[in-house]
């Protein structure tokens, strides 16, 4: 996610959708600029080391709750600009899509991918995870995570991968994307308070992670995993957070 998201304003939240330039990429998923060193950048990035509500986490010990999950308001199809920002493949959406959660409305800004999954469920990673990033007027975020396992093909992925954007360069528009292809049929999910999973690791995210995965073929997963291998932050401590499990 974009480093520009340290200001709690809608303008800053929308900057999450902007692709990073090669010059701006001074963090990585490995080596001297990997996750263990993100907090050394200082400033807003200090949260990566000192924060107490960091993401991702290993989802375990969830408390069954009557709390509602997000009410998604996604159209049947929408278009999105596909870019490779050097860390992930990201789709910046156009059109009206969003969700309502705890009495607040969030607008869908973008979605992107990680391989392996960033979250774990009972200590297990999925081959890939998709994050749907929604922003509220005050700059707070609601992010929906969906695990992707190997299985039947996902048509929506084929349309995105076909753009084949240049790393750090131009992309293209994927039309008529069916976002609900990314959603499991069972709405059971986990909810917790967390953060961005990349610098500046701001703790402004209401996370919803679906309990059940969707599927893509091994070839579809490999297309992304070979381009951005190990593009996942290690899981972070729970500390004293409450993790809820909803029925949907």
Summarize this structure as a short list of keywords or feature phrases.
single chain, 248 residues, mainly beta, Carbonic Anhydrase II, 13-stranded mixed sheet, 4 helices, globular, disordered N terminus
Give a written overview of the molecule.
With 248 residues, this protein is mainly beta. It has a domain at 10-19 and 31-71 and 111-153 and 185-246: Alpha carbonic anhydrase (Carbonic Anhydrase II, Roll), CATH 3.10.200.10. The chain has 4 helices and 15 strands. Strands 2, 3, 4, 5, 6, 7, 9, 10, 11, 12, 13, 14 and 15 form a 13-stranded mixed beta sheet that branches. The chain has a two-stranded parallel ribbon with strand order 1-8. A hairpin with a 5-residue loop joins strand 9 (128-135) and strand 10 (141-150). The longest helix has 10 residues, at 218-227. Residues 1-25 have low confidence and may be disordered.
């Amino acid at each position: 996610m974009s480093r520009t998201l340290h200001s709690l304003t809608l303008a800053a939240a929308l900057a999450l959708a902007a692709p990073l330039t090669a010059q701006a990429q001074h963090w990585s998923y490995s080596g001297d600029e990997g996750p263990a060193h993100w907090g050394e950048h200082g400033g807003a990035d200090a949260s990566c080391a000192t924060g107490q509500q960091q993401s991702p986490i290993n989802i375990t010990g969830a408390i069954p709750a009557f709390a509602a999950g997000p009410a998604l308001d996604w159209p049947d199809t929408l278009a999105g600009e596909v870019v490779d920002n050097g860390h992930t493949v990201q789709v910046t959406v156009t059109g009206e899509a969003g969700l309502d959660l705890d009495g607040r409305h969030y607008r869908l800004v973008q979605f992107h991918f990680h391989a392996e999954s960033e979250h774990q469920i009972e200590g297990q990673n999925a081959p890939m995870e998709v994050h749907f990033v929604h922003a509220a007027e005050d700059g707070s975020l609601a992010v929906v995570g969906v695990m992707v396992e190997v299985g039947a093909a996902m048509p929506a992925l084929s349309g995105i991968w076909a753009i084949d954007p240049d790393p750090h360069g131009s992309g293209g528009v994927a039309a008529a994307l069916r976002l609900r292809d990314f959603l499991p049929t069972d709405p059971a999910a986990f909810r917790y308070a967390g953060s961005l999973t990349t610098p500046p690791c701001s703790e402004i995210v209401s996370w919803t992670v679906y309990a059940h995965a969707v599927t893509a073929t091994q070839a579809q997963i490999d297309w992304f995993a070979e381009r951005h291998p190990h593009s996942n932050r290690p899981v972070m401590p729970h500390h004293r957070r409450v993790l809820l499990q909803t029925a949907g």
